[in-house]
Amino acid sequence: MSSxxxxxxxxxxxxxxxxxxxxxAKDADSFPSTWEFPGGKVEQNExxxxxxxxxxxxxxxxxxxxxxxxxxxxxxKVHLHIFWVRQLEGxxxxxxxxxxxxxxxxSHLTEYAFPASNQIIIEKIQxxxxxxxxxx
Length: 136
Known about the structure:
Layout: E1 5-12, E2 18-23, E3 35-36, E4 39-41, H1 48-60, E5 63-65, E6 68-74, E7 78-85, E8 87-89, E9 100-105, H2 119-127
Parallel strand pairs: 1-7
Antiparallel strand pairs: 1-4, 2-3, 2-9, 5-8, 6-7
């Protein structure tokens, strides 16, 4: 059996506590036309936070500063390493075929179609609704 794929995921917040999501391309290999949090596959011998910084620059043209590790969601095929990003530089752009991006209020995340593997992330984010997410 092959090793799980490691993926670093960014929960990017703006100064209004809205979170950045992107809409996958219509012809994406997996989960076409679904919303996702930016991030991507970790390369061999690459640290999870280094992969996150690289992927954000490649995907959405932002430089993240001091990403904060939150948790890992593991299943048999994929390990998702989730980071909060509160400091960034640059203007968001869709650079890898995404159809769109949006800054979304956390309470509205469930209104968007995400891959099933992201549901636990959304639930955990929304469980913080009564707690300041700046303290996570």
